[in-house]
Amino acid sequence: MSNKAFNNWKKYQLNDFSEINPSTKLTKGVKYPFIGMESVEPNKRFLSNIPAKKFKGSGTKFQAQDTIFARITPCLQNGKIAQFNSLNGKVGFGSTEFIVFRNIKDISDSNYLYYLLQTYKIRKHAENSMAGASGRQRTDINYVKQIKFLAPPIKTQQKIASILSDFDKLIENNRRKIEILEETAQLLYREWFVEFRFPGHKKTKFINSPLGKIPKGWKIKKLNDISSILFGFNFTSNKFNSKSNGVRVVRIRDILSGKTSTFSPENVEKKYLIKKSDLLIGMDGIFHTGVWFINNCYLNQRVARIRSKKPTYFIRQSIKRELHYLQKIIMGATVGHLSYGDIKNFNILIPNNESILNIFQQITNLVVNLKLNTLSLTKTRNLLLPRLLSGKIKV
Which residue, 116, 180, 243, 294, is most buried by CB atoms nearer than 10 A? Predict the structure, then answer.
C-alpha cells in the first residue's frame, strides 16, 4: 500500500489505543457471568452458555464488548482470545490469566480492537515477552502496553470490523445449526430407539431380548460386526510440530473442536488416514466422540476410528449410553482408559426397516458440510484479517 494511502492512519501504542485491565465495578457475593480459560475457544469470537458464579473479589473483571486475552502459555499461543457479550449481564469476571482490553471513545472501536488483538503482530509481541518457569510463562503486561502499530480513523475501523464480523456471524450461524442438528439426532434416537415411538410402532409386536423388550424383527449387533474399528498410530510426541512439517495428526483434544495444529514428520501407513464422516472416540478421560470432516489427517494413538456401514450419527447416539456407563465404572482416582475390547462389544440395535435410519444419514451429511463450510469461512476471514488491519486492502 502506498504511503499516500496511510496519510490518515496514525501510529499508536497499545495502551494509547485501549484501556488495559480497566476498572469494572462488581459486588462481592453477587452472581455474575464467569469465563474460565477452558471456556475460550480459538477462532470463536463470542462465548455461548456462560455460567453465573458468585464473585468473591478475585479474577479479572470486564464489561460488554471488552476483549479478554490469554496471557499464559500455551493458551496465548493457542489463540484464546474472545469478546465478552453475555445475555446474562453487562459485567462479568473470569480467570486471573486474562488481560482485559477496552476501547477508548473516539479513538478505537471495540470490535476493531478485538480483531487487532487477533493479528500475528500483536500476539507474537505478547508471546516474545513471556517469562517465568517452563510451562507457566506469562506475558509481560508492561511490554504489551508499548506494542506499536498503525491504525485508521474510527470510521474506517468500523468498516473493517463490519467486514470481518460478517464472517463471524456466518460461522456462528453454522455452529448453531450444528447444535440443532445434534440435538435433533439425540431426540430422535431417544424417541425411536429408547422409547420405541418410531414410525409404525403402534402396529409392532415386542419380544424379550438381552436389552429388554425390543420390536420384533429388530436385531442386536455388536459394534465390531457393523463397523471397522481402528486405533491410532503411536507417533513420537517429541517430534510433533505446528509448522506444517509432515502429516497432520488428530489427537484426543481435537475430537470436539475439529481443529488440528499438530504435525509429525514420521512415515505413517495409509490405513491410519481418517475420512469424512468417520466417528472418533477419545479413549482416555471423558471419552469424547466426534464426527470428523477433514481429509488427509492421521489418527493418533488413544484415538479410535469407527467407520460403519450405518449412519455415523446413529452409531454415535447408539454408543453414548455405554460410553457413559463405562466412564462411571472406570473413572476413579486416576484417568479412565478404554480398550478395543471395551468398545468392540457395544450393542447396536438395528431396526428391520432401515429406512428410518435415513434421517441420521441426512444429519451426518448436513453436519459434515456445515463444518467444511465453517472451515472455509474461517480460513477466508483469517486471510483477510491481517490484510485489512495492515491497510493492504483498502476499504
Answer: 116
Question: pTM of this prediction?
Answer: 0.87
Report how far residue 20's alpha carbon sits from residue 60's, in angstroms, rounded to the nearest whole number.
11
Phi-psi region of 274 (alpha: psi -120 to 50; beta: other; left: phi over 0): beta
Q: How many domains does the chain have?
A: 3
Residues with Cβ within 8 Å of 287's Cβ and at least 6 positions away in sequence, in order, are: 281, 323, 326, 327, 336, 338
CA atoms of 68 and 44, how far apart (whole Å): 12
- Walk along the chain (395 residues) and give the pLDDT tens digit of each residue: 445 556 789 999 999 999 999 999 999 999 999 999 999 988 789 887 889 999 999 999 999 999 999 999 989 988 899 999 877 779 999 999 999 999 999 999 999 999 999 999 999 999 999 988 766 899 999 999 999 999 999 999 999 999 999 999 999 999 999 999 999 999 999 999 999 999 999 999 999 999 999 999 999 999 999 999 999 999 998 889 887 889 999 999 899 888 887 999 999 999 999 999 999 999 887 788 999 998 889 999 999 999 999 999 999 999 998 888 787 776 554 567 888 888 999 999 999 988 999 999 999 999 999 999 999 999 999 999 999 999 999 88
Q: Which CATH number goes with the domain that contains 262? A: 3.90.220.20
* Secondary structure of residue 200 in the 3-state scheme: coil
d(CA 259, CA 275): 15
- Identity (one letter) of the amino acid at 333? A
Would 262 be classed as within a structural domain? yes
Query: Based on the domain organization, do 98 and 168 belong to the same domain?
Result: no
Domain that holds residue 180: 153-196+355-395
Lookup result for grid cell 478485538: 114
